[in-house]
Amino acid sequence: MGQIYTVAITGLGKRGKVHADVFHRVGRFKVVGLSDVDKSKYEDAAALCGNPPFFEDTAEMLKATKPDVFCFCTPPSIRLPLIKLGVEAGVKLIAYEKPMATSMNEAIEIRNLLRSAGVKSVLSHQRKYNVQFQKCKEVVDSGALGRIHTIYATGTGWMMHLATHLADYMRWFNGEAEAEWVVGMAVGRGKLTDNHPSPDYLAGFVQFANGVRGIIEVGDLAPDVPEVDYWWRKVRFIIQGTEGFAEVHVGDGWRAVTKSRGWEGSAEGTWDADHEQVPYIQDIALWLDGVKHHPCDGESAYKDQEIMCALMRSAVQRRRIDIPLGPDEPELEALSRVLPE
Ligand SMILES: NC(=O)c1ccc[n+]([C@@H]2O[C@H](COP(=O)([O-])OP(=O)(O)OC[C@H]3O[C@@H](n4cnc5c(N)ncnc54)[C@H](O)[C@@H]3O)[C@@H](O)[C@H]2O)c1
C-alpha cells in the first residue's frame, strides 16, 4: 500500500476530471481540495474523488489544505502563476498538463523556480505508457533495428496540443539523447489566436547528439494516418534503423519489421485512463516514495519545450537554432510578426 499523499487540484475540465478520478482510485492519494474559476465544474469532478471541498481560489485552497501534491489542468496560458503558488505553499511535487509553457522564457522561469525550491514536477506526456508504445519501445531497445538513424513523428492536431507529445516520445525512443540543433518552418496564422496558440503547421528536423535525425510534422499539413479514425489520434512515429523499422500510432497498433525478428505487431492499441493515466499517477507516488524516477518529469518536459520553441525560432529567423536555448523574443509573438496574412 505505502504512504498516502494528499493532492489538491485546480482546473476541473476534461483533464482535471481524469486526474481527480485516477488520483482518487489508485489507492496512494487522498484528494483534499478542488478549485476552478468556473464553479459549475465542481460537482462532476467532486463526485469522482470523494467530494473534497471546493475553493474559489487556488491560493486559498493550498493554504487551507497544505497538500503534498498540487495538480493543475488549466489552459496552456496559465502556468507560471500557478507554479509560483505551488512553490510558495511548500508542496513536494507539482503535476501539471503539457505543454510546460507557451514560450521558452516562461519555461526557463518555471524550471529555475522549481530547481531552486527543490520541488519535483511531472507533466502529462503519458501516452508512452500505452501497450503499443511499450511494445514498440521494447523492439527499439532490443537492438533489432540495428543502428537507428531516423525517427519520424507526425500529428494532425495543432502544435500547442501535440508538439511536446511528439518531441517527448521521439526523445524516449531515442534513449533520451540530447538534441543539438533544429531547422524548422511554420505556416499559417489561423490558430495563433486559439486557446492552444500555434502556427497551423510546424515542421522541421532535429539533430541529436547520438547522430539520430528527428523529423517532426505537426498541424493541418501533416499527413493523415488512415489506420486511425479518430482525428486527435492521427499520430504516427516511425523509428528507422539499418536492420529494420518500428512504427506506432496513438489509439491504434504498432508494427515492426526487422532482419533478426521478422514481422511483429498488432492492430490493437490502448488510449484510455486505465492504461496511461493510472500508471502515470502510480509513478508519482513511487517517485515521492524515492523508489523510482518519474519518466514524465519536468526536466524532460523542458527538453520537449526546447525542441518546440527552437523549431518556431528557426522558422522566424530562417537559420539553424542550437540547443540549449536562452531567453529571446517570445516565439509566438515573433511568429505572429512574420507569418504572412
Ligand atoms: N496529456 C493529455 O493527454 C492531454 C489531453 C487533453 C488536454 N491536455 C491539456 O490539458 C490542459 C487542460 O485541457 P482540458 O482539455 O482539460 O481543458 P478544459 O477547457 O476542459 O478545462 C480547463 C479548466 O481550467 C479552468 N480554468 C481556466 N483558467 C483557470 C484559472 N486561472 N484557475 C483555475 N481554473 C482555471 C477552466 O474553467 C476549465 O474548467 C491543456 O493544457 C491541454 O493541452 C492534455
Describe this structure as you would to a colleague.
With about 350 residues, this protein is α/β, with parallel strands linked by helices. The chain folds into 2 domains: about 5-125 and about 275-295, 3-Layer(aba) Sandwich (Rossmann fold), CATH 3.40.50; about 130-270 and about 305-320, 2-Layer Sandwich (Dihydrodipicolinate Reductase, domain 2). Helices cover about 35% and strands about 25% of the residues. The chain has 10 helices and 15 strands. Strands 14-13-12-11-7-10-9-8-15 form a 9-stranded mixed sheet. The chain is globular. The mean pLDDT is about 100. Nicotinamide-adenine-dinucleotide binds near residues 35, 37, 75 and 76.
